[in-house]
Amino acid sequence: MKKIFFILLCVLCITDVLSAQNIKFGPKISGVISNLGVYYYKKTNNPGVSAGVFLEYGKSRWAGSADLMILFSEQPYGGAIVLPLSVKYYVGKRFYVKAGPSFGAKLFDMDSKPFPDENRKRLFVGFNCGIGVKIAKKFYLDLGYDRSLTNRSYTYSVMGLSFSWNVLKAK
């Protein structure tokens, strides 16, 4: 019991220190439409979900943001780990725009796919952009688009509506 109390106390202290540094951190969940896992000759979009965490640090109107997301699509082999890095610019106190590179890796092996390609890549680099709004003191809603710039035997583009919650003290 003492260990649990000590761990909770440490987490609270770290959270308080981080909150004073203009840092936002918390869970993020998205509903997405993706063609992840679809070969280049098929042009279908499938619904999916992504879940993960976000971290943001900023001063004034500018902020840097990183999200670590696990994406699952309805398409077979439609899973990936994606790390979008964004620069955010706050327009007023509630609205923001964001853009930046994204990095990712396919989660599933594609050996059972038709037309196997020996040169296919599981790692990808892309570009993300979006707009968002602060809907309450600690809650954010954003619409984003992510597109692969390095694809070989599959395409990657995702559009999603995300909901995130800042678990640190909100200013």
Structural features:
171 residues; mainly beta; eight-stranded antiparallel β-barrel; 1 helix; 55% strand
Question: How would you describe this protein?
Answer:
This protein is mainly beta. Helix content is 11%, strand content 55%. It has 1 helix and 8 strands; from the N terminus they run H-E-E-E-E-E-E-E-E. It has one helix at 2-19; strands spanning 23-34, 46-59, 62-73, 79-91, 95-106, 123-134, 139-148, 157-165. It has an 8-stranded antiparallel β-barrel with strand order 1-2-3-4-5-6-7-8. The protein is globular and about 40 Å long. The chain starts with a helix and ends in a 6-residue tail after the last strand.
Mean pLDDT: 78
Oligomeric state of the chains present here: single chain
Strand content: over 45%
Number of helices: 1
Structural class: mainly beta
Terminal CA distance reads 33 Å
Q: pLDDT below 50 for ≥5 consecutive residues: which ranges?
A: none
Radius of gyration: 18 Å
Largest sheet: 8 strands, antiparallel, barrel
Order of helices and strands: HEEEEEEEE
Shape: globular
| Quantity of strands, as a count | 8
Physical arrangement of strands within the biggest beta sheet? 1-2-3-4-5-6-7-8
Helix content: 10-25%
